[in-house]
């Protein structure tokens, strides 16, 4: 009779919860978790109520299902579900709590939902990953969604549609990377739609709870996913892979010094710097993480500091704009607000041959060189015996910085030398091919 009466409580730490009476429809009448963390050893069905009083419950490939469609059938005072929680929905709209999280964070969310025309079940979980992996398109006024985490809800019932009409009390914490709270909104996406949709909501600070404006019910067909995430209405705001704290430019006798600081970084490849003269429509790339190692992201959760010196010969007295962009692991490019400065010094550009990057390399690397005036340039690669193995540049080049890629496919591992000759200038550097 324990399947229809009474409570079973798991109050240890490190327990594996193996479903009891697995042949029956419901393993438990009332199931309570307290104490420390636990894992599931199979699918758990709860007929009446699930109480979370402590510990992270990791479901793995399994799930916890609550068959009672009353909104109060799930309660939480501590702990959360790291994995999939399935809740039965009534035919009338109710506010269903999903106490979800991952291995380290708790992010509660409540959905105003119902099953129509018959009772339905909705499976929910929190996913640590970029919302742009669901869709990289955004309905105006959305400009982006969280690159840290999002919720995924799936209709787990026959042909019945589950209806969702509001997101309530979605938890926002300091490690969600919210750069400007006033621009933060609730965003949703139904699998098959071309873009994320802005659903309203507002907060004035973090930590906080955000609730969407009521929207027309979204019908989730069987097997399709309905995703929910934090969104932003302003380019350059978070939630994004990088939280930018500051970006400054200073004119010096050595060039324009660009400095920026981040508050947090997550799954970022790195940065690129763009420049244009004020009033001009076209941006020119000055440097990129692909060729300049100092522009590669450190991916520090506590942020980092960066600097780059633009040695380009710019006209004194003219105003130039610089823009910083960031590229995430998923290829999403974020453009931050540009800054402007007036050049006050002539920069005496010199000849320069930079160290290749990366080094060691396999099989491709990038070599940067700089010349102060237009002229004939030769850049060649030699092996340790002095035999020429590649000609990278052999012609007239304009003054400025240049990048060239060397592909060592077909060459053996070992030390190679690359030599730049331009006018009376000549310099040789060493690099290492490692296969």
Question: What's the topology here?
Answer:
Elements: E1 7-10, E2 15-17, E3 28-33, E4 38-40, E5 44-66, E6 74-89, E7 94-101, E8 106-116, E9 120-128, E10 144-145, E11 149-155, E12 161-168, E13 170-172, E14 184-190, E15 197-198, E16 208-210, E17 218-220, E18 225-232, E19 242-252, E20 255-265, E21 268-277, E22 284-288, E23 305-310, E24 319-328, E25 333-335, E26 339-342, E27 352-353, E28 364-371, E29 375-382, E30 388-397, E31 400-407, E32 414-422, E33 425-433
Parallel strand pairs: 1-3, 2-4, 3-5, 4-5, 5-6
Antiparallel strand pairs: 6-9, 7-8, 8-12, 9-11, 10-18, 11-18, 12-17, 13-16, 14-15, 14-18, 19-20, 20-23, 21-22, 21-24, 24-25, 24-26, 27-28, 28-31, 29-30, 29-32, 32-33
């Amino acid at each position: 009779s324990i399947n229809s009466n009474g409570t079973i409580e798991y109050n240890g730490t490190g327990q594996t919860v193996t479903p009891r009476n697995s042949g029956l429809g419901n393993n438990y009448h009332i199931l309570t978790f307290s104490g420390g963390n636990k894992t599931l050893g199979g699918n758990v069905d709860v007929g009446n109520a699930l109480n979370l009083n402590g510990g992270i419950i990791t479901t793995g490939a399994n799930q916890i299902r609550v068959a009672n469609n009353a909104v109060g059938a799930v309660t939480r005072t501590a702990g959360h579900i790291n994995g999939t929680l399935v809740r039965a929905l009534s035919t009338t709209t109710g506010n269903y709590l999903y106490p979800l999280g991952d291995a380290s964070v708790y992010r509660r969310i409540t959905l105003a939902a119902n099953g129509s025309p018959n009772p339905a079940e909705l499976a929910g979980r929190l996913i640590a990953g970029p919302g742009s992996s669901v869709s990289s398109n955004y309905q105006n006024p959305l400009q982006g969604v969280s690159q840290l985490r999002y919720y995924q809800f799936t209709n787990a019932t026959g042909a019945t549609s589950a209806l969702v009409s509001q997101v309530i009390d979605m938890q926002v914490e300091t490690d969600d990377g919210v750069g400007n709270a006033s621009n933060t909104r609730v965003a949703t996406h139904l699998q098959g739609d071309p873009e994320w949709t802005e659903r309203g909501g507002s907060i004035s600070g973090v930590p906080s709870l955000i609730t969407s404006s009521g929207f027309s019910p979204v019908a989730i067909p069987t097997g399709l996913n309905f995703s929910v995430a934090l969104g932003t209405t302003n380019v350059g705001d978070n939630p994004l892979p990088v939280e930018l704290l500051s970006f400054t430019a200073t004119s010096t006798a050595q060039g324009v010094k660009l400095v920026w600081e981040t508050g947090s970084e997550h799954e970022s490849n790195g940065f690129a710097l763009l420049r244009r003269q004020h009033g001009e429509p076209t941006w020119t790339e000055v440097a990129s993480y692909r060729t300049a190692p100092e522009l590669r992201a450190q991916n520090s959760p506590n942020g980092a500091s960066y600097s780059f010196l633009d040695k380009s010969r710019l006209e004194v007295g003219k105003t130039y704009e610089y823009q910083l962009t960031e590229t995430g692991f998923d290829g999403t490019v974020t453009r931050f607000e540009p800054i402007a400065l007036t050049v006050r010094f002539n920069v005496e550009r010199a000849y320069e041959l930079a160290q290749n990057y990366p080094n060691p390399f396999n099989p491709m690397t990038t070599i940067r060189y700089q010349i102060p005036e237009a002229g004939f340039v030769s850049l060649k690669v030699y092996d340790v015996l002095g035999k020429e193995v590649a000609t990278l540049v052999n012609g007239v080049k304009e003054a400025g910085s240049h990048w060239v890629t060397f592909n060592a496919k077909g060459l053996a591992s070992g030390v190679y030398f690359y030599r730049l000759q331009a006018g009376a200038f000549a310099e040789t550097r060493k690099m290492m091919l490692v296969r």
